[in-house]
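lol so apparently i was supposed to do this last week
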Amino acid sequence: MKKIYGNEYLLKTLSNMITSGKTAHSVIIHGEKGTGKKLIADYYTQQLLCNNPIDGKACGECVSCRNVENHMHPDVTYVGTEGKLEGYSVSTARKIITDAFVKPNNNTGRKIYIFRDCRNMSVQTQNVLLKIIEEPPDYAYFIFTAESKYEFLSTIISRCICLAVSQCTEQETISALAELSYSESDIQKAVECFHGNIGACIDYISDEKIHKRIDLTKSIADSIIRGNEYELNRAFYSVGTERNELYDVFAVLDKFFRDCAVLSVNKNAEIIGCFREQALRLSGIIPQYKAVRIHNIIEESRKAVQLNVNALLAVTSLCAEIMKIIY
Ligand SMILES: [Zn+2]
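anyway here it is w/ zinc ion bound
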C-alpha cells in the first residue's frame, strides 16, 4: 500500500483499536480533498482483514492485504453512487443492509462497507443507514469518507468514531513527491500552491486542467485587486457552469480571502491558499472584517449553486457583492 505521510496520531489510534480488540464498527474519515482519506480508509480495511497483523498494523503481504490493496477483496464493498450528483440512494442503502446480514467468508470473519466522498447524502438515506450503524452485526464495518463530518446527521456522527485527516508538513510533501519522481521545479511550484496537501500537489502537477483552473483563479484575484469588475466577470464566466469546476474555484478563492484576513494582521503568517503575493497586496487594501464578509458570501454562493440556482446568476451576483464590499 502507498505510504501515508503525517497523520501519526490518527494511525496510532487505528493501530490501538486493532491491538486492543476494540475496533470501531462505524468510522467517519474527514478532511480536505487530497489529504488521503481514501488511502486511510483502505489502510483501516487492511488492518481489519489482515491475517497476520503486526503491532496493530497490517502485514501488507498476506492474501487479504493484497486483495484490499488491489480493491479485489470479496468482503469489501465500495458502495456505488448514482446520478449526476454522485449520491448514495435509499435503495442502495437498503441493499447494503440486506447484504450486511449475510455472513462473510474470510478468515477474519469481517465485512467492510466503504462509502467514499459522501456529500449531500440525503436525510432519508442516512436514516436508513442509521439503523444498521446503531446495531451492526458483529462482523460488519462501515467506513465513510467526507470533506466534513457535518455532511452527516448528528445521530450518525454520534454513533461513529470521527477521524480528522490533516495535511502533512511541506517537507513531508516534498519527500512524498520526490519519491514519485516529479521534477524539482514542479514540486516547488506545487508545494507553493498546495503546501502540505499531497493529493492536491499531485493533481496540480499531473492535470493540465487544474493548472489552468489555478491560473484562472489567479486572474480572478488580480482583477479584484485592480478593482476591475468587468475583468472579474469575464474571468469568472470562463470557468463555465459546471458545478464541480465552480466549487473548486470557490474553494481556491475562499482560501485566498482567508489568507488575506490573516495577513492583514500578521504579514509573515503561514498561508493556506495558493497566492501569497496577491493575498498580501489585497490585505493592504481591505481590512480583515471585509475579507471575512467576502468569505461568507463565497460560502453563500457555493450553497446557491448547490441548490441549483442558475450558476451564471450566482457568479454575477458574487462578483457584484465582492466589488461592493471592497470598493
Ligand atoms: Zn496482511
